[in-house]
Specification:
- There is one protein chain.
- By secondary structure, the protein is an alpha/beta fold.
- Helices cover 43% and strands 18% of the residues.
- The protein is built from 9 helices and 12 strands.
- Strand 4, helix 2 and strand 5 form a beta-alpha-beta unit.
- The N and C termini lie far apart (66 Å).
């Protein structure tokens, strides 16, 4: 009978794994006043570039297992190799986060090997009205909602049952400040990110009784290939690495909600108190250059 090794199992299931096998160990870091969460098995979507790649690199170290996915296999493999070079064990698979069945199958394959401590739903796309002012098409709008919100739903519903059974786990959903204050040039993007906020806050309340925490993250402008598709005024812009540092710190503290930079988050809250016409004039500055 042919000997079945762990490596051949992963090859048969199309779940790729590197050769660096490290013993999984739950640990916490203790700060001045409260324990800091330090995950050992982490799943990140949208890891092939931008913020997802920066998050993967920020968590890469000896003793961690990184489970990475994205749609671009070539770029995803580059991220996986970088993380391996930093000592992590890496499981990776190129898939479309909109495919409910594929996401559920992938998560079940991972859970059979490594129970997840942290899951970060980061995959996203953006879109806009036409350069001549024509309203963004239904296809463009639905693609953003399906990926940004639908993909988040697919991932959370796949991982939450495992965490509920273990009575522990941490989930981070990457939304956007656009979910708090959308710009008129990106209505579907803002709607999808607002949906992530609402979904995350509701699921946080529901999963709390099982010891599962949910962090909703709302970044401002981040210098990434996706964001760079559209030129605009982008104050307080972070690099992907700076944003990843801010996010990992919030996750370590198990914050319920993390919006940054604080200057933009505060201006949005203040802006909500203004009459619509004044708020509209202020928001026009953030529209895309055409």
């Amino acid at each position: 009978m042919e000997k079945v090794t762990l490596r051949t199992y992963f090859e048969e299931t199309n779940l790729h794994v590197n050769h660096l096998f490290a013993k999984r160990n739950e640990r916490t870091l203790f700060g001045d006043s409260c324990p800091m969460f330090r995950p050992e098995a982490i799943l990140i979507t949208g890891a092939s570039s931008g913020l997802g790649r920066a998050l993967a690199v920020s968590y890469a170290r000896a003793g961690t297992t990184l489970c990475l996915t994205g749609r671009n296999e070539e770029r995803l493999l580059e991220t996986a190799r970088d993380a391996e070079g930093m000592g992590s064990r890496v499981l990776w698979k190129a898939l479309d986060i909109c495919d409910t069945g594929a996401v559920q199958t992938w998560v079940s394959e991972i859970e059979a090997d490594t129970p997840l401590d942290l899951v970060i739903s980061n995959a996203g796309v953006t879109g806009s009205h036409g350069v001549d002012g024509t309203v963004e098409t239904a296809e463009t709008a639905h693609a953003q909602i399906a990926t940004n919100l639908g993909g988040t739903v697919n991932l959370l519903t796949a991982v939450a049952p495992y965490m509920q059974k273990r009575k522990r786990g941490n989930i981070a959903l990457i939304s956007s400040l656009a979910g708090l204050q959308p710009i008129s040039d990106g209505p579907a993007y803002g709607a999808s990110k607002a949906g992530v906020i609402a979904y995350g806050e509701a699921m946080r309340d529901h999963l709390h009784k099982w010891g599962v925490s949910v962090t909703v993250v709302c970044p401002g402008y981040i210098l990434t290939p996706m964001a760079d598709q559209f030129k605009s005024w982008r104050p307080y812009e972070y690099t992907a690495e700076e944003a990843a540092t801010s996010i990992t710190k919030a996750i370590a503290k198990k914050k319920a909600f993390h919006a940054f930079p604080w200057q933009l988050a505060l201006s949005i809250h203040i802006g909500k108190l203004l009459p619509w016409k004044l708020r509209r004039l202020a928001n026009q500055r953030f529209n895309y250059q055409r």
